[in-house]
Design brief:
By secondary structure, the protein is mainly β. The protein has a single domain, classed as Jelly Rolls, CATH 2.60.120. The protein is built from 1 helix and 13 strands. The strands form 3 sheets. It has a 6-stranded antiparallel beta sheet with strand order 1-2-3-10-5-8. Strands 4-11-12-13 form a 4-stranded antiparallel beta sheet, with no helix packed on it. The protein has a 3-stranded antiparallel beta sheet with strand order 7-6-9, with no helix packed on it. It is globular.
Amino acid sequence: MKKTNPAKLKWEKRKSPKGKYHAYSKDLSAAIGDVRNAWPKKGHPFNLALVKVMPGAAICPFHSHTSQWELFVILSGTGTVRAGQSRHKVKSGDVFMHPPGEAHQIINTGRKPMLLHIIADNPPVDIFHYPDSNKWGTRPHGKFFRMTETPYHDGEE
């Protein structure tokens, strides 16, 4: 059995160039042996992270997944969740889930850091969509792109 204690792990900073997305995380799954984005699949069946979102910032851009489910547990603080076309206030003790296909984003609207757990299943292949920027991404390759529609047989003959 592998075990860890979040108090012993260092916070990993994640911040966008202009600071709109600003959070710190502790990858608890990696600390007990998970291999992220391994192909073929070698990781755990789900991932657990402890995340601290700074006041006024979001964890990441508004996005959806084609395969991955995400479960959130708010440990402290307050915020707003964008889910599809709606917004929901969240606070300490709230638990909510986003299924594949539902675009979502967590924003700390409070005055103190918001602390939460993110539990996500770990599908070996996932495609994510960012509606605000019309961008797509893939796992395991970690590539981001914008699509141009083309006929099915284009370039095949």
